[in-house]
Amino acid sequence: MTITQLKYAIAVANAKSMNEAAKTLFISQPSLSGSIRELELEIGVEIFGRTNRGIYLTPQGEEFIGYARQVVEQYRLMEVRYIEKSKIKKKFAVSMQHYTFAVHAFMEVVKQVGMDEYEFAIRETKTYEVIEDVKNYKSEMGIIYINEFNKKILDKLFEEYQLEFHSLFDCEIYVYMWKGNPLANKECVTLKELEAYPCLSFEQGSYNSFYFAEEVLSTYEYKQLIKVNDRATMLNLMVGLNGYTMCSGILCEELNGPEYCAVKLDVQEKMTIGYLKRKGVSLSLLGQKYVEEMQRFKNHITNAI
């Protein structure tokens, strides 16, 4: 197995076509196909499935390409540093469900280390895409929650994808709303009281199973429900329609502003917020620093209201 073969496999995976990949690599299609077959025979894995319509990545192939991307990227860093004698920026990327505290912690890391040596990426996205990003090395870490309802399903997926979930903190369930909402001054609210107002929930796209919902109590039959796909729209609907969403109770006024509050929900449900990483792959120094910054918010949980 050579670096060239890994680069060829990545090019085919990106192009989803032997012919197109061969063009980008400036080699003949038979040569490319032969090199890929030799690689598959050597590692004992069918990376690409073949049909009359073309090729596709097999499940084992997806895992292999994820590792190949990491190896080629590291090789490129060494090549630039020791052969080309130039400086290339290291990368740090995080994917997450919509947690303001996680964004704030990311900002703190960027401020501390600066952007001269690092290229940063942060992705607030759907639950399944967070998991996929970590699986495919698109992000070093993924920030999500688990609870009794989704734990069994997500643990099975984590095991299949060779991922590990590490807890940051446990939270009770709060209702996040505009301070102008008639319920905002209450110490605790019930689901019955919330029926007069629309519940706001983040869309999950094709993977819209209850188990992938960002909000707890996803199976509850809400009388009013609005799906949204970004944080700004959700905040606007909280003001314009007195909407609300379920949250951890960890507020971050520095980013969302002081116009919103969290009120305890009268349920026994709890949630655990944590981070995903690749099994057997240690966090980078920045990853460790990011975890430390997120853990600082643990003290905010008891002061959420």
Helices and strands: which structural class? alpha/beta
Largest sheet: 5 strands, mixed
The average pLDDT is: 89
Strand order of the largest sheet: 4-3-5-13-6
Written account of the structure:
The chain has 305 residues and is an alpha/beta fold. It has 11 helices and 13 strands. β3 (90-96), α5 and β4 (118-124) form a beta-alpha-beta unit. The longest helix is centred in the first third of the chain and has 25 residues, at 59-83. The termini are far apart. The relative contact order is 0.14.
Topology:
Elements lengths: L2 H13 L2 H8 L3 H15 L4 E4 L2 E4 L1 H25 L6 E7 L3 H14 L4 E7 L2 H9 L5 E6 L4 H10 L2 E10 L1 E5 L9 E2 L1 H4 L4 E4 L22 E4 L2 H11 L2 E4 L5 H4 L3 E6 L4 E9 L6 H11 L10
Parallel strand pairs: 3-4, 3-5, 8-12, 9-10
Antiparallel strand pairs: 1-2, 5-13, 6-13, 7-11, 7-12
Helix pairs in contact: 1-2, 1-4, 2-3, 5-11
Describe, in short, the structure shown.
41% of the residues lie in helices and 24% in strands.
Give short descriptive properties of this protein.
alpha/beta; 11 helices; 305 residues; 13 strands; four-stranded mixed sheet; five-stranded mixed sheet; 41% helix
